[in-house]
């Protein structure tokens, strides 16, 4: 499939620019005509390896951009603007070099060609996620696209706010740890060797701590190039390992067992997945399909398998509450609230409250983590400084004592 950029006129004489994918130029012309337009010009997109690399590295969209797009589109459509005009206005406001412009351009052309918004955005499912596209599709089929967009925007804003709080809380400890590592590397490679050379010139007796420091420094001076190799190798190991489901499962289980980090990770996963399930159900997607979608977008293999198991049990006729409880994965409060939602017929709204609860719990866990990290960092710094002082000053003390 080749991407073509075209210029055409509608029956009212209005000039329209857009893009579409087709097998060849003739097929593209037919598609434009079938959309009720008169083609004026059509040009195939020029592709190159450099352009592909540039797009992969720089042309990305983040959660904030998706949230802004959803909120703006929701506001425009709720104000009475038709979908075509809303997409056109958003496209004109976007940076022509950004991926969002490409998405809007393609989606606008798709909608103008008689297809749905879900068809246009479906090409970028990796960016928006399966849950997002499924919600849009359900909204269009049910004739409640404006309502679905509003709920999507609300949920995405909550998710974006929560992610921002977590990242913001982790910035300080991450910067401190990185700073510590950099200082240690500089000390070991550049500072300590010069001091050790001075001690060797005086033929001083080296205590055990100094000898250990010299050995570490000597190793890092000779094999400093192994540091980036080990870092790259570490990431490559996990990247290759993540392609294996058994490796991912064991890794995710281990992550949940880490003190402080494990419970925080569990609460974050629960907040995200339950919020997504609530959003899908409120969009009108059947429960079995919603559970399957949540299982596919879950960031943890344990919960991915749990949601998939629940969807299979519900499809067989088991109750939702019983299916959640049978997995043995979810906290008691989740099972109880699901039972309440199932009994009252308001499962989507109950799940939204549960997700809000776990979001607050996760935020508290992040604050506890940062509060715990600060004294731990100070203790490690104190131990490190004490070791350096003893290792560096003991030879001087021995020299002055022997004189």
Q: What's the CATH architecture name of the largest domain?
A: Up-down Bundle
Number of helices: 18
Large-scale geometry: extended
Distance between the termini: 84 Å
Question: What order do the helices and strands come in, and which of them pair?
Answer:
Elements (H helix, E strand, L loop, with lengths): L1 E8 L5 E8 L2 H10 L3 E7 L4 H10 L4 H16 L4 H11 L5 H14 L4 H6 L2 H4 L1 H13 L2 H57 L6 H15 L3 H16 L3 H13 L3 H22 L4 H11 L3 H15 L4 H8 L4 H13 L2 H56 L1
Antiparallel strand pairs: 1-2, 1-3
Helix pairs in contact: 3-4, 3-9, 4-5, 8-9, 9-10, 9-13, 9-18, 10-18, 12-13, 13-14, 13-18, 14-15, 15-16, 16-17, 17-18
List key phrases describing it.
Receptor-associated Protein, 3 strands, 2 domains, 403 residues, mainly alpha, 3-stranded antiparallel β-sheet
Description:
This protein has 403 residues and is mostly helical. It has two domains: 1-47; 158-403, Type II secretion system (T2SS), domain F (Receptor-associated Protein), CATH 1.20.81.30. Helix content is 77%, strand content 6%. It contains 18 helices and three strands. The protein has helices spanning 25-34, 49-58, 63-78, 83-93, 99-112, 117-122, 125-128, 130-142, 145-201, 208-222, 226-241, 245-257, 261-282, 287-297, 301-315, 320-327, 332-344, 347-402; strands spanning 2-9, 15-22, 38-44. Strands 2-1-3 form a three-stranded antiparallel β-sheet. A hairpin with a 5-residue loop joins β1 (2-9) and β2 (15-22). The protein is extended and about 100 Å long.
In short:
The protein has helices at residues 25-34, 49-58, 63-78, 83-93, 99-112, 117-122, 125-128, 130-142, 145-201, 208-222, 226-241, 245-257, 261-282, 287-297, 301-315, 320-327, 332-344, 347-402; strands at 2-9, 15-22, 38-44.
């Amino acid at each position: 499939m080749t991407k073509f950029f075209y210029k055409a006129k509608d029956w009212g004489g209005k000039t329209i620019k857009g893009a579409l994918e087709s097998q060849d130029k003739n097929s593209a012309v037919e598609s434009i005509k079938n959309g009720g337009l008169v083609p004026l010009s059509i040009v195939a997109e020029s592709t190159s390896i450099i352009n592909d690399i540039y797009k992969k590295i720089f042309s990305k969209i983040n959660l904030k951009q998706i949230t802004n797009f959803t909120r703006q589109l929701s506001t425009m459509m709720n104000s009475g603007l038709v979908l075509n005009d809303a997409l056109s206005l958003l496209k004109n406001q976007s940076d022509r070099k950004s991926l969002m412009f490409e998405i809007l351009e393609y989606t606008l052309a798709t909608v103008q060609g008689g297809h749905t918004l879900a068809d246009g955005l479906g090409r970028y499912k990796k960016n928006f996620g399966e849950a997002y596209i499924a919600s849009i599709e359900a909204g269009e089929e049910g004739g409640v696209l404006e309502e679905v967009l509003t709920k999507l925007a609300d949920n995405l804003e909550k998710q974006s706010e929560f992610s921002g709080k977590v990242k913001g809380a982790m910035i300080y400890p991450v910067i401190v740890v990185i700073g510590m590592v950099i200082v240690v590397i500089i000390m070991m490679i550049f500072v300590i060797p010069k001091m050790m050379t001075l001690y060797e010139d005086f033929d001083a007796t080296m205590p055990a701590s100094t000898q250990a420091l010299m050995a570490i420094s000597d190793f890092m001076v000779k094999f400093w190039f192994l540091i980036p190799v080990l870092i790259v190798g570490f990431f490559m190991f996990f990247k290759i390992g993540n392609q294996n489901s058994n490796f991912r499962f064991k890794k995710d289980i281990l992550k949940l067992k880490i003190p402080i980090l494990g419970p925080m990770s569990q609460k974050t996963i629960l907040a995200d997945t339950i919020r997504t399930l609530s959003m899908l159900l409120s969009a009108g997607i059947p429960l079995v399909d919603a559970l399957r979608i949540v299982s596919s977008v879950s960031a943890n293999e344990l919960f991915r398998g749990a949601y998939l198991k629940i969807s299979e049990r519900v499809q067989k006729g088991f109750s939702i509450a019983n299916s959640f409880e049978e997995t043995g994965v979810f906290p008691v409060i989740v099972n109880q609230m699901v039972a309440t939602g199932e009994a009252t017929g308001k499962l989507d709204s109950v799940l939204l409250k549960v997700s809000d609860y776990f979001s607050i719990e996760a935020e508290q866990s992040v604050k506890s983590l940062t509060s715990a990290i600060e004294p731990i960092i100070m203790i490690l710094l104190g131990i490190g400084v004490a070791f350096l002082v003893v290792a560096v000053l003991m030879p001087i003390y021995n020299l002055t004592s022997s004189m």
